[in-house]
Amino acid sequence: MASVAGATAVEALDSHTYEGTFRDEWSIGNVALHFSTTHAARNQPHTVTLHLSFLRRTSIGPALFTIRDVKLGRRTSTVHVSLIQHDEKEPSVVGYLTQSNLQTEEGISLPTEWSLHPPPLPLLSTTALKDDNDPNWQRAHRLSTFRKAAARTKWYLPRHGQLGPAMADEWICLADGGNFTQTSLGFVVDQFPQIVEMYPAEQVADGEKSREEEVMRRMKWYPTVLLNLDVKKALPEDGVEWLFVRVRAKRIENGRMDLEVVVLDEEGDLVAVSNHVCLILSAERNMKRSGQSKV
Fold first, then answer.
1. What global pTM score does this model have?
2. Of 46, 124, 211, 212, which sits with the fewest C-beta atoms within 10 Å of its C-beta?
3. Tens-place pLDDT, residues 154-177
4. 226 and 279 in contact (C-beta within 8 Å)?
5. Which long-range contacts (CB under 8 A, 24 or more apart) does 84-87 make?
6. Which carries the bigger pLDDT value, residue 61 or residue 150?
């Protein structure tokens, strides 16, 4: 079983083209190498902003990443990346990434008094989480029939229910005992309880007649249309075992929703903020053997 680092590894074909493989066990349905090889002299190892548009559905198998240098600067550099699969002429994903060095940044810093509202439930200790005896948090067990990447993590949710509607809090760690690193933050902001599935079944009924059992009938597929990531701090070089994630929707309407994802470290410090635009479709649609089907 590949680790998160192994599953996201890529190989340089030339100075601006990289090849990787989307593995089945990490599916839900690397610019770091570019800045450690082609632009190593710039010393900009950290992705500080990420903007991705998902044009077509990606699938298991080889993927070709092409990078175009848009702006190479002293403090930040921006590149355009496109992902192509299965010899298609058009990319499945396109995006812009800004690189910098979070450890050498300098400039004005001011207190903002920002905090999460409502505040997260207290955590006794991460040891209590591991033993599943924290008074406020408990291990969540999820079906991963097609959200296979979710099986690579352990989620711990509020023991007595979430703090409010259209929101979910969790503590997350890797199932293999590894650590989350800077390059895995993009994975972290895509791992959270699905808000739609926490609503009563009658509220999310869409008239479809599924052949799956009731629990599968309620499951949906949430293809991402747009994802933004703003990284606020550098994690330790060897990573961290635990991260806290809060996901919240402002509007869920006509099969489309927004999501704000906030990531904190064990000390409660802000690590990253991500915003998504997602569609809400039948899970059965994603599980069909449709080959190159599109949203």
1. 0.84
2. 211
3. 999 999 999 999 999 999 999 999
4. no
5. 85/22, 85/58, 85/59, 85/61, 86/59, 86/61, 86/292
6. 61
The number of CA neighbours under 13 Å toward the Cβ of 60 is 14
Please determine, for residue 43, whether its predicted confidence score (pLDDT) is greater than 60: yes
**What tokens appear for 134 in the block?**
């924290």
Q: Predicted confidence band at 201 (pLDDT cuts at 50, 70, 90)?
A: low
**CB-based burial label for 255 (10 Å; 0-12, 13-18, 19+):** exposed
pLDDT value of residue 17: 73
pLDDT recorded at residue 6: 52
Mean pLDDT, residues 65-83: 94
AA letter at 157: L
Strand 10-14 to 17-22 pairing: antiparallel
Q: Pick from 121, 81, 126, 73: which is nearest to 101 by CA?
A: 73
User: Which residue has tokens 């293809």?
Assistant: 223
Give the contacts of 79 (CB within 8 A, at least 6 positions apart).
31, 34, 67, 68, 69, 70, 96, 97, 99
Helical segments of the chain, H only: 4-7, 31-36, 126-131, 185-188, 214-218, 283-287
Greatest alpha-carbon pair distance for the chain in Å reads 58
Q: Is the pLDDT of residue 27 over 50?
A: no
Helix (H) or strand (E) holding 209: none
